[in-house]
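re the bet — no i am not wrong, look at it urself. input seq straight from the record:
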Amino acid sequence: MHGRSYSRSLAILLLLPSPALSGGQSDRVTGTQDLALPIPRAVQTPVRDPIPTLPLPVPPGPIGFSEIARPAGTIFSGTVIGVKRRRATPGQSVETVAITFHIENALRGATPGENLTILQWIGLWTSGQRYRIGERVLLFLYPPSKLGLTSCVSAPLGRFAIDPRGRIILDAEQLSAFRKDPVLGGKSRPTLSDFALAVRRAREGE
């Protein structure tokens, strides 16, 4: 009997928790404080909002000379004689740049010999669509907006440099765009007469 009582008492003692594990130390060993350590910043995985799936843009149709000439409200060649920045005002809500040209040849909406000033949004200027005094250009300009602003049609396709001999310079992009035009196709230095004929043909094809 004494042997059996001793064995039973020993088993009960073995089942009791030891003092080292039954006090406040248990939180430091197995508590949630140790399991909730912050993840080092270097290995944290940022949570990002899902990126919306946007439809792919529809490629534009082929741009030829007619697509440049038809929307233009003003077509002329001339020399830049003035550039002035204009701050926004109560009557003009956006900042603009006023560019003045001396018109040499007019194909639409201008008069030869006059000085014509156009207003361009400052954003176009800062993005690179600039003019310098003394520069000779041939421009295809949209009709002025409600704010009186304009820009080149399908810029930079609607803007052409003029060489010292008065010929129009077509860059690689313009040569590619107008390669099928019956008048301008294949010409890297067409004359103003070539452009006048191409503009007339584009108008007749409307």
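see?? DSSP finds eight helices and six strands in the chain. told u. also Strands lie at 74-86, 96-108, 115-121, 136-141, 159-162, 168-169. so pay up
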